[in-house]
Design the sequence.
């Protein structure tokens, strides 16, 4: 048995090395976040880590560096602050993710949640990843086994593998709702009147690879057939996919590779198919790191016809979040900056279904060298500050659903024929 385990570990290491070797030459670079640089960067479809304190941080390939040099864009190499050289960039150690969830740990905890609260939580396998891992949704409702005519909302996590904190926030939201249902009247009201869906891990294959081999892995594990791996799942949705070639890349080696076509990836097909069965009234997709609330459009700088309501909801969430830990998440239109995106979750859910849709970029931890990774001790504080916004959005869905139902009733009455009272 010991020999078999040793062989399996060796095989995993070799396979991981084959994938990871391509990324060993990536560099983390820092640029000044000024208007001239933003203009020059537009259209390069780079892998943005974050914007922070007047700087832009990017994961750059050799080809990216060539493109930047051709435009005479000045940058500094910051990799030494980010890559954990003392541990090795590529590792197959188990447990290296600490208090953050791996796929099997999340699976275990979701099942335990449903077993402990069977009347409130139901775990549903909504599809399989490329490597045949289950993509789990946890549905939370007072009548979790029934399809009721009530409001519904969805929270998504971890489209991008390296964004470990984006798994924790939606998972902890589900845990909070079921654990406080019997003691918190407000939580009970929300759960009683809304069908709440949480998919904490959209990209299970990528997460496992990020944990065990390459911490900065972003995409899924698609073998592109040309020596490159991975599709950026948050560029694979169908709305404005590949629009003007700005905000995603046709290059399979790119960190923002959109895939050969829209909805080619089974992980994104699972989300698409879930939407086809439900009638969600709002969406949040958690990402990191930037500490901002983004709403559509992302594929263009133009404003949508629902700009006012999108900003109002986002700004309200921001105002509820800030008092918890003093961190400010500004509400901004995604395409207003230099970093356009296309084929992403929120443009799709808003563009196709017309529902308020938000990308919440969770914060970096300024105490860690490089200001990129989150400390394990910050998992709960980051969740705590996001909780009021999530509860508010659930309540918004409830109020909106009630208003729509009332208006539908009034319209139904108006269509009823009038009875003539003859004397």
Sequence:
């Amino acid at each position: 048995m010991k020999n078999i385990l040793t062989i399996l570990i060796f095989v995993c290491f070799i396979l991981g090395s084959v994938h990871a070797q391509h990324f060993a030459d990536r560099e983390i670079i820092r640029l000044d976040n000024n208007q001239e640089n933003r203009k020059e960067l537009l259209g390069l479809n780079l892998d943005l880590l974050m914007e922070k304190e007047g700087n832009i941080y990017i994961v750059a390939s050799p080809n990216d560096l060539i493109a930047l040099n051709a435009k005479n864009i000045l940058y500094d190499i910051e990799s030494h602050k980010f890559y954990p050289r003392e541990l090795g960039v590529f590792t197959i150690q188990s447990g290296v993710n600490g208090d953050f969830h791996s796929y099997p740990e999340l699976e275990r905890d979701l099942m335990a949640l449903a077993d402990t609260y069977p009347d409130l939580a139901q775990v549903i396998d909504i599809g399989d990843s490329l490597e045949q891992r289950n993509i789990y949704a946890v549905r939370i409702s007072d009548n979790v086994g029934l399809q009721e005519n009530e409001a519904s909302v969805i929270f998504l996590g971890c489209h991008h593998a390296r964004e470990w904190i984006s798994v924790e926030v939606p998972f902890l939201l589900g845990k909070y709702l079921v654990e406080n249902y019997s003691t918190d009247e407000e939580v009970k009201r929300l759960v009683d009147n809304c069908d709440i869906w949480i998919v904490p891990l959209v990209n299970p294959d990528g997460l496992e690879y990020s944990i065990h081999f390459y911490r900065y892995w972003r995409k899924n594990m698609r073998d592109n057939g040309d020596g490159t791996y991975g599709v950026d799942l948050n560029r694979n949705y169908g709305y404005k996919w590949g629009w003007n070639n700005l905000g995603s890349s046709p290059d399979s080696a790119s960190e923002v590779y959109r895939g050969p076509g829209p909805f080619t990836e089974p992980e994104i097909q699972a989300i698409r198919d879930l939407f086809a069965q439900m009638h969600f009234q709002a969406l949040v997709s958690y990402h990191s790191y930037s500490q901002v609330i983004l709403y559509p459009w992302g594929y263009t700088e133009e404003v949508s016809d629902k700009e006012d309501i999108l900003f109002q909801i986002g700004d309200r969430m921001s105002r509820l979040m800030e008092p918890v830990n003093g961190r400010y998440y500004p509400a901004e239109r995604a395409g207003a900056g230099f970093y356009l995106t296309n084929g992403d979750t929120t443009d799709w859910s808003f563009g196709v279904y017309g529902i308020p849709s938000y990308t919440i970029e969770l914060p970096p931890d300024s105490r860690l060298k490089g200001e990129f990774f989150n400390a394990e001790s910050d998992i709960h504080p980051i969740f705590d500050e996001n909780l009021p916004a999530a509860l508010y959005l659930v309540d918004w869905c409830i109020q909106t659903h009630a208003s729509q139902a009332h208006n539908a009733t009034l319209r139904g009455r108006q269509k009823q024929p009038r009875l003539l009272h003859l004397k």
